[in-house]
Write a structure and sequence with these properties.
- With about 450 residues, the protein is of the alpha/beta class.
- The protein folds into three domains: about 60 residues, no CATH class; about 130 residues, 2-Layer Sandwich (Beta-Lactamase), CATH 3.30.450.90; about 250 residues, P-loop containing nucleotide triphosphate hydrolases (Rossmann fold).
- It is about 35% helix and about 25% strand.
- The protein is built from 16 helices and 16 strands.
- The strands form three sheets. The protein has a seven-stranded mixed beta sheet, with helices on both faces. A six-stranded antiparallel beta sheet has the order 6-5-4-9-8-7.
- Strand 13, helix 10 and strand 14 form a beta-alpha-beta unit.
- The longest helix is centred in the first third of the chain and has 17 residues.
- The two termini are about 40 Å apart.
Length: about 450
Amino acid sequence: MKKHLINYDISKNFDTHILKETMVLPVYQNELFITCLVCENSNIEEFKKYVKITIKTLFTKQESILFEIDNLALKRELFTLAKQLSLSSSQRNTRFFIYQIVNLAILKNASDIHIETMSEVLSVKFRIDGVLIEFFRFDMAIYSLVSSVLKLFANLDITQRRLPQNGRFVIEEFANYDFRISFMPTINGESIVIRVLEKDFDRFYLDKIGFSDSSLALIKDKITLTQGLILVTGPTGSGKTTTLYSIIKELKDTNKKIITVEDPVEYKIDNITQISLNREIGLIYSEILKNILRQDPDILLIGEIRDAESLQSAITAAMTGHLVFATLHTNDAVSTIFRLLDLQGEGFLIASVLKCIIAQRLVRKRCECGDNIGCEECNHTGYKSRTIISEVLDIDDNLSSLITSHATLLEMKQQALLSGFIGMYEDGMQKVRQGITTQEEILKALKS
């Protein structure tokens, strides 16, 4: 038996309610036997009433069986399409196949689609709420078609499979979305990752990200300043971009000129001047930041402070009457100060311009189903959607003095606590007590 592939055609012979009642899923059949996925709660004796040949079993988790049954109709349709593609090279059918996968990704609120060539199969996974979930496995025979059509979508070289390629595309049927795509050669073929970006800027709300009342009040107070530096920090995938865009939305209706420098621009915003990096022509952070003040901005958003030069540009802008927002990759709010010093920032300059540091992580929220095996809405994970856990450090006069005098990390943390600072762990545990998330999620997020 090919354990790596499921024959979804077999399920046509069984009503879905029978599969759910017996908790048995047939995955392979020949003249001698039928192989089924079963779990500890499966009723194999009941299922035997519906088959006339020997049953072989493969043991798995109950939620895995439920996950397969929930998406069975679409999986059957895609399985049939994949079989047709493996027999005839039809670009039209391949496009429809891709559209169906993209459509499900959007319905499931996936941020990314991963199409990976393995040794014998083509695996399709969705990243949902930060977790990669495998939805489909297809015969490798369709890989070349899928790869070529996706490259045509993005105007890339369909003959090139030995070097990385990156691009973007739109699909008329999904007009509210942009798609960014990356091809990476692997030992089995290619790894293809499609980033799904919703165009709707109005979905960003500072009040709805998950900040506590006290943190939200401090952030809203700081973003009304006319000058200074405000940093949003955390590892990749911690929601920094969402926080920045939500802040910009809060400010964009003010009578101020806002300029963003991004790599690349993820969401287009009306009435905002947005600049996207282009390394091929030398349009990089340092080059843009050298000239950007001549554009007479009131507010600057710098995608990321990466080096001493970009930090110096941010400090200069903040010192000359501009409010500057930027991101930085650090573990927590207080250690961010030392990262700025490592980037050759002068202590007294940092102390004079730095107003606030927002450090954050994303954690999954508990699904409303309250079931330990989940439901269709949460893909049987028990979690649906995400929220922020954060710590917001107010750079008051006391902390500014400590920065200037190059105090230790411990001294700064002690001073922050005296000023009412609430750490990320405590913020997260407050959400656990409110039933929003779990301690497991908090601990996992803080390890990143």
